[in-house]
Amino acid sequence: MKLADVVAKITPDDDRRMEKRMAVATKIYNSLKSQGMSQKTLANKMGKTESEISEWISGERNMTIDTLSDFENALGISLLNIHSERTQRIPSQTVINVHVGNSSTCHITNRLGYNNPIIMKKNHHGNKLLS
Question: What digits encode the pLDDT tens for the residues 41-92?
């Protein structure tokens, strides 16, 4: 197969994905260099093989969210930059009700502090979850 044939088969989605993989790989590589850390040291910190690290840094291997998180932890960098909606930490299973007419909107905050809205409908026996 000719190179032109291979290139012709690259879709815009393939191109976008490769660009993102390479951007992440470049950030990891630059962080390694700026910290004077070897791929072997990084592999040991992450409990991975040196060849796995090499494949990720070359952009040849996809990364899971867990792997990205492990890179962030091992290198002390941010790769995900996700701003999650969090509430003030309150004890697990605490319910906060906001009454609106015959129904209520409540928020149950889990152990990690994430706010999960649940719609409740009030009847003569009390509140019933509708989630």
Answer: 999 999 999 999 999 998 888 899 999 999 999 999 999 877 655 544 545 5
d(CA 34, CA 36): 6
- What token pair was written down for 101? 């007419």
Predicted TM-score (pTM) of the model is 0.58
115's CB contacts (< 8 A; 6+ apart) are 85, 86, 87, 107, 109
Q: Which residues contact 65 (CB under 8 A, 6 or more apart)?
A: 80
H or E segment and range at residue 104: strand 103-109
CA dist., res. 122 & res. 117, Å (int): 16
